Amino acid sequence: xxxxxxxxxxxxxxxxxxxxxxxxxxxxxxxxxxxxxxxxxxxxxxxxxxxxxxxxxxxxxxxxxxxxxxxxxxxxxxxxxxxxxxxxxxxxxxxxxxxxxxxxxxxxxxxxx
Length: 113
Ligand SMILES: [Zn+2]
What we know:
Blueprint: H1 31-35, H2 37-50, H3 54-70, H4 74-90, H5 94-110
Helix pairs in contact: 2-3, 3-4, 4-5
């Protein structure tokens, strides 16, 4: 990373500039862990569901979905939507489940990269 003061190139993990000694900003600390946040929420969910806490699971699925969308992590969004849709289908909310899945499904089927 380049020093913000003198533009000296420093090793990625350096805390201080080797040229001028200025403190270097950390590159998004913890970002990698946060990238997995949606997946963690989804797993936590699945465990709640196994314990029969459907309401708690639904809340977590929605939080996970929200996170996946913010990260533009489409594969998470798809997996979480699928799980949530299954939950809703079990509760008889077929229309909600379909409305949830359709946009994600369409994104995958129409987007060709
Ligand atoms: Zn410097």
